[in-house]
Amino acid sequence: MTAAVEERAAARTARASGRPVRTRRRAGPWLYLSPMLLSLVVWVYGPLVFTGVLSFLDWDLTSDHKPFVGTDNYERLFGEPEFPREIRRTLVYVALMAPFATLVPLGLAIMLWKRPGRTSDIYRALMFLPVVLAPVATAVSWHFVLNPLQGVANAALGGLGFRDDRNWLGDPDTALPVVVAVTAAKIIALNMLLFGAALAGIDRRGIEAARIEGATEWEITRFVVWPQLRRTTVLLGFVCVVLAGQWVFTNVAVLTQGGPDGSTDNVYYRLYTYGFTFFDIGAASAAAVVIVLALAAVFVLRVVVARVTTRLSRALTR
Known about the structure:
Layout: H1 2-17, H2 21-54, H3 72-79, H4 82-101, H5 103-114, H6 118-132, H7 135-145, H8 152-159, H9 172-199, H10 204-212, H11 217-247, H12 249-256, H13 267-276, H14 281-317
């Protein structure tokens, strides 16, 4: 009743002032959204457009002269062997990181969820510890641990009777797996926490009912728990595809600088090298645009696959 009276009063006021009520109603939501939209324009879409413009220029970050070079930066990017090779190596990072982003944290989260108590909480806190540590400090610590002459890793292997002179970060055969393993410790901990949040929404009465019916723990996990975590697993797998190259960036920059012989390089570190080692801002911007377009293609593919899967499941259930 009060709202209707206020609305009639607003209408009379608007008619009196010559402004239609409908226009004011339409403008209201946009006024509330304007701070967020302004932030997106300033911090996301504005720099994205600026990067696209820079990709058509030849600029060294300091000169006032920025000649327009058209698509030369893109042609040079794909004409040289480095960038296509780093794209393939980024896909290798994604493939190696995927189990550590999905299967390993999923298994750990289920095991801890099935055994609630103080011991599980302590174990979960210890597992989460690498997430809160500074990435650069953690990478520097691993540099000392993996030192071929005085590192703890070789000393421990020597104590067990294995070879103790391996240069883990200087050997092209071991450098990339080591970078993946060092990065995986943090990703496992973070995704285990996310799986734990998803498990908190599962009704334990269904688990108890399955146990009363005589189901084994594997059958409960396979047919009761896992179906309810499928969406979370797909989401974290998608996040891994998008961010795996960025996850390893800090460890690549601190531990190997892309070496030895480019064996640990990827598109993100290559972009950084173009921009802040060679000061080739045009090539760096072109690489950034290519990465954005590739990620957009992955997102569109994910939406299409999700819609097709939904339609197929609906068709099968009819």
